[in-house]
Specification:
Nucleotidyltransferase, domain 5; 4 domains; two-stranded antiparallel ribbon; 20 helices; about 50% helix
C-alpha cells in the first residue's frame, strides 16, 4: 500500500524531533515548508501506484511518497550515491527528521534506486512545474525577467577512441556468451574467448599512437587491422549464439537465455557500427562516417564543442537552463540533437508565457542567441527590452544601442546564469549524468536543477553567507548549536604588524563556550598556518 504520508508515527519520532530541532540547516527549513505541498506528494503517489494494481489501498506498506521525494531531494542536494544516501540517513538524526523517516527503517539503496526509476522524465517535469507554481504563489517569481543559457551535461563514458570501443564490444559480447555457455553447456556453437587477444591489440595501438613517425603510423594501422579481424569474429560468433537460442539448440534456464538473447541483439548492431566507422577512418581516411557512435553503452552521446580551451570536445547532451527573478530555474530542456542556440529563444519565450501567463518585460541572453528574427519575435510577443549582444554587427545604431545603460545592466544580470550553471555542476552533480539512457539524463538534469532553487529566495541568512564579498570560514559545533566565524586576512603586507598575538586554540574556544562566557558567535581566530593571519581585527558581534 502506497500512502502519501506515514499513516502512523513511531514512538521515537518525538524524541528525535526534540533533539535535532535547532540543528537543521537553513536550506532544510525552506525545503521542508515547500515539500509540505499536497500536490507534489500526489504526483509521486500516483506514479508509484502504477507499479501494481490497486497498490494505493491494498498490499503491505511501501515507502510513502513523502519519504521518496525528500530522500531524492537530499541525494541530489548532497550529490550522493544511493548507497551513501542510505548510510547517511541511517546515521544522522537530522536527516531522519528531514526525510520524515523518524524512527522507522531507512529504505536501502536498491529500494531507492527502483523507486527513483519509476519516476520518469515526465513526472520530474510535473514536479518542476509545481515547484515553480509554489514560487509564484509565494511571490518569489513574477515572470517579469528572463535569462537563458546552455551548457553540456556529460554522459558517463570514457574518452571515445575506435580501439577502446572495439575492445568494449569484444568484452561485452564475450561476457554474455560465457553466461549462455554456463547455462546451455556445450550444445551448438562452441565459444572461443578472444578477449585477451583484443586487449593486447588495444594496448599495442595505444603504444604505437605515441610514435608520430611514418613507421609508427603503419604499426598502429596494422594493429587496427588485427583488432578489426578479432572483433568481426567475435561478432559473428555472437550472431550464431543468438540464432541458436532462438532455434532452441541451446537449452537451459529460459529466463537467463532470453535475457542473454535480448542483450546480444541489442549490442550486435552497435558493435557492427563501430566496425564500420573504424574501417572508414583507419582504412579509407574518412572521419565523418554516418551514424558515428561514441559509446556502445550510451548511444545517444554527442560531440559538443562550446569553445572551451581546456575542454574543446565534450561528450554528452546540450542542456538549456531558463531562469526568472531571484534565480528561480523555471524551465530546463535536454536537447535530443545539438541545435544552434539562436533556435531556442522562441521556444523559451513561449514556455515562459505558458508558465506565467504573460511575456517577460526584459530578456537577456549571450551572443549565441542573437538573431534579428529573435529580437522581432520577442517584441511581437510583448517583450519591451531585449538584451542580446551581437559582436559581428557593423551598424552604428546597433553599437550605440548595446552601449545603453539598460542594455549593459541586463547583460550584468545575465552573467548570473554562469554562476547558476557552476553551482549546478559543482554542488548538484550536473557535470556528469550517472543515470543511464536518454530518459536517465533527463531525470538527472531535472532533479539537479530543481534543487538549486532552494538557495536563492528562502533564506536571506544563507544567501548573505554564501555571497559575502569576503571569504569566511565557518566552524560549526553541532552539539553546542554555536557557530564560530572569522574572516581571512585581507590586509596588505605593508600594513601588517611585525609582532602578532597568539590566538587561543580551538579547545580553549570551546571551553569558553561551555563555561557560559560566550553566548553568541565567538569572534576568535583558530591557530593560523601563517603568523600574519592572526593580525586581522575580528568581527564585532
Amino acid at each position: 500500500m502506497i500512502a502519501a504520508r506515514r499513516l502512523q508515527r513511531h514512538f521515537a519520532d518525538g524524541f528525535i524531533a526534540e533533539a535535532v530541532e535547532d540543528l537543521w540547516e537553513p536550506w532544510m527549513r525552506n525545503a521542508d515548508t515547500a515539500l509540505e505541498d499536497d500536490a507534489l506528494l500526489l504526483i509521486i503517489q500516483q506514479e508509484l501506484a502504477k507499479r501494481c494494481k490497486k497498490s494505493k489501498t491494498r498490499g503491505r506498506k511501501a515507502t510513502p511518497a513523502e519519504v521518496v521525494l525528500r530522500m531524492l531531494l537530499l541525494k541530489h542536494v548532497r550529490d550522493w550515491s544511493y548507497e551513501t544516501l542510505s548510510r547517511e540517513v541511517r546515521a544522522n538524526l537530522v536527516y531522519r527528521e528531514f526525510t520524515r523517516i523518524g524512527g522507522e527503517k531507512v529504505p536501502d539503496d536498491r529500494t531507492m534506486g527502483n523507486l527513483a526509476r519509476q519516476l520518469g522524465p515526465e513526472v520530474i517535469q510535473q514536479l518542476h512545474r509545481r515547484v515553480v507554481e509554489i514560487a509564484q504563489e509565494k511571490k518569489i517569481a513574477a515572470g517579469r525577467k528572463m535569462r537563458v543559457d546552455t551548457t553540456v551535461v556529460e554522459t558517463d563514458i570514457h574518452y571515445p577512441t575506435d580501439s577502446t570501443l572495439l575492445g568494449d564490444g569484444v568484452r561485452v559480447l564475450t561476457r554474455i556468451m560465457k553466461k549462455v555457455t554456463a547455462v546451455a553447456g556445450k550444445a551448438g556453437t562452441q565459444m572461443r574467448d578472444r578477449s585477451r587477444s583484443a586487449k593486447l591489440k588495444v594496448l599495442a595501438i595505444a603504444r604505437a599512437s605515441r610514435n608520430k613517425t611514418e613507421p609508427g603510423r603503419q604499426k598502429m594501422k596494422n594493429a587496427y587491422i588485427q583488432l578489426l579481424e578479432i572483433t568481426s569474429r567475435v561478432a559473428g560468433q555472437a550472431k550464431k549464439f543468438s540464432r541458436e537460442i532462438a532455434g532452441r539448440i541451446k537449452r537451459g534456464n529460459l529466463s537467463v537465455l532470453h535475457k542473454a538473447k535480448k542483450q546480444l541483439d541489442e549490442m550486435l548492431p552497435r558493435v557492427q557500427q563501430v566496425l564500420r566507422q573504424t574501417r572508414e577512418r583507419v582504412l579509407r581516411g574518412n572521419t565523418k562516417a554516418d551514424g558515428k557512435l561514441l559509446s556502445v553503452f550510451e548511444t545517444h552521446t554527442e560531440v559538443i564543442r562550446k569553445g572551451k580551451a581546456h575542454k574543446p570536445n565534450e561528450f554528452g547532451k546540450l542542456v538549456l537552463i531558463q531562469e526568472a527573478e531571484n534565480q528561480i530555474v523555471t524551465h530546463y530542456q535536454v536537447c535530443e540533437q545539438r541545435p544552434a542556440d539562436s533556435t531556442l529563444l522562441e521556444g523559451c519565450l513561449e514556455q515562459h508565457v505558458e508558465q506565467f501567463g504573460r511575456a517577460p518585460e526584459r530578456v537577456a541572453a549571450d551572443p549565441g542567441f542573437f538573431s534579428a528574427a529573435n529580437e522581432s519575435k520577442a517584441h511581437q510577443m510583448g517583450v519591451s527590452r531585449v538584451s542580446i549582444p551581437s559582436h559581428d554587427t557593423k551598424s552604428p545604431a546597433r553599437k550605440q544601442r548595446q552601449k545603453q545603460r539598460w542594455f549593459k545592466k541586463l547583460q550584468k544580470w545575465r552573467t548570473g546564469c554562469e554562476g547558476r550553471i557552476s553551482v549546478l555542476k559543482r554542488r548538484h552533480g550536473l557535470r556528469r549524468s550517472l543515470y543511464k539512457g536518454p530518459a536517465g539524463i533527463q531525470r538527472w538534469v531535472g532533479l539537479g536543477s530543481k534543487h538549486a532553487r532552494g538557495e536563492a529566495p528562502g533564506s536571506r541568512y544563507s544567501v548573505l553567507l554564501h555571497r559575502s564579498p569576503f571569504p569566511r570560514f565557518i566552524l560549526e559545533s553541532s552539539f553546542l548549536n554555536q557557530s564560530v566565524a572569522f574572516p581571512l586576512a585581507t590586509q596588505p603586507r605593508s600594513e601588517r604588524p611585525e609582532k602578532f598575538p597568539q590566538p587561543p586554540t580551538r579547545s580553549e574556544t570551546l571551553s569558553r563556550i561551555l563555561s557560559g562566557k560566550v553566548t553568541r558567535a565567538c569572534p576568535v581566530l583558530p591557530r593560523p598556518n601563517r603568523a600574519w593571519d592572526s593580525a586581522v581585527e575580528p568581527h564585532k558581534t
